[in-house]
Give the backbone structure.
Amino acid sequence: MTKIINLNYVKKEQEKFLDYLRNVEGIKYQESKFEVPMWLTLALLSELVEVLNETKIHKWWDRSQVNQDKLKEELADLLSHLGNLANELDVDLIASVEETQTTSLENQFIYIAYKITTLPWRKMFGKHKLDTLIVKYVELVYSLGFDMEEIREAYFNKMKENYLNPKFMES
């Protein structure tokens, strides 16, 4: 079944949070008018790896349970940077997605990593890649056994924490 997923709430919240950070003394936002900032590409990749680490799918020797709450938090962190990318590209975060598990998790992670690492630096060419990233992100969420409402809740919980985090506060 195809479902329209509207994640524009993330785009709006991330814009508010980045505006907040821009006003914190000692934090200098790295802007670029025509290119996707390198920090953002690295942040997306870093957050994807954090999601991967929480799933433990590559750690065949690790017999400990997956911390589902931590996994949702990491998915929310990745989503926040997809929101940042949508703001950089000035596009909506809306996708049409099948509500089914797709390929293996391993293939999903590799495909998303590929899409992130091959993001065009030029903003004008990045919009199509973001559409694909959103679809693959939502498919990953479903494949990990979550729904988008759970991720929305985790996202807003994380945003509350971010505003209270001393590393983001004015000195």
Observations:
- The CA atoms of residues 57 and 106 lie 7 Å apart.
- The first strand starts at residue 2 and ends at 6.
- The chain has a mean pLDDT of 88.
- The chain has one domain: 2-168.
